[in-house]
Amino acid sequence: KILVIGACGQIGTELTTKLRDIYGVNNVIASDINTRNLELVNSGPFEIIDAKNYNAIKDCCKINNVKTVYLMAALLSATGEKYPMEAWDLNMNSLFHVLNLAKQKTIDKVFWPSSIAVFGPTTPRENTPQHTICEPTTVYGITKQVGERWCEYYYEKYDVDVRSIRYPGIISYKAMPGGGTTDYAVEIYHEAIKTGNYECFLSENTSLPMMFMEDAIKATTDLMQAPSENLSIRSSYNLSAISFTPEDIYKSIKTEMPEFSITYKPDFRQDIADSWPSSIDDSVARNDWNWQHDYNLKDMTFEMLKQLRKKYNS
Ligand code: VAH
């Protein structure tokens, strides 16, 4: 069976649904620290698990014969700057718990998300390579950089089959993102439908690597299904699809909604965004497990606006 920790989050929500489509509802246990996503809670097996609680995770795995864990719980970049020690505690200890369960063979496969946040201001910003300088300047980025080192260590030292992706910003319509710097790229679509204008917390020319959720979920399940011998990276794979700026999104929304307006009011998240690359080289993922993104900005905008109109019944 499969356990998704942090299943109520932005990625966890859609990942759980996709895994249930592939493996069957009753073979995928969703868990989170609370039941904030009632639709998910009522859609199949669900357990309240605090990702910092080793025994809670171990008991769930043993009782339900869980063999694969997707660890999706974390405090993201913006929240991590407000609560540094909580971010270190959750992001690191949850990873240790799951890696140790794999080391002792309670489970036999782990997915753990990393992020473009592992890169910092000294990293080459254009087409950032798989192997490069990583001096992250956020707590979140530090936890992801160190987490990658631990994943590779557990693979090399204890033969733990842990797999990871450095997610770019992810845009989706089903569940809201939780405290990230790229959240503007989700909020802007909601505001376009709800109010017709958006005050953006990043400057108009801030280019960041981004991806539509459908592509992120495809990448995650493709990586987890790839033959282990094909994988040359056990820290975390660079992955990207599209890079764009707030102005690019604004213009793509405007083609469908000519009356949409935007203002720019950068806040503390501008410094975080400025420390990250503007585009990523994901050729290693494309070579190792045939990664290929499907959605460009135009397709994503079309889908986001269509789905959000339905959601807001407008
Ligand atoms: C964040 N959405 O903004 C997350 C992600 C690449 C960014 O890690 O913190």
TrEMBL record:
It holds the Pfam family Epimerase. It comes from the Bacteria. This is NAD-dependent epimerase/dehydratase family protein. Residues 2-231 form the NAD-dependent epimerase/dehydratase domain. The lineage of its organism: Bacteria, Pseudomonadati, Bacteroidota, Flavobacteriia, Flavobacteriales. Belongs to the NAD(P)-dependent epimerase/dehydratase family.
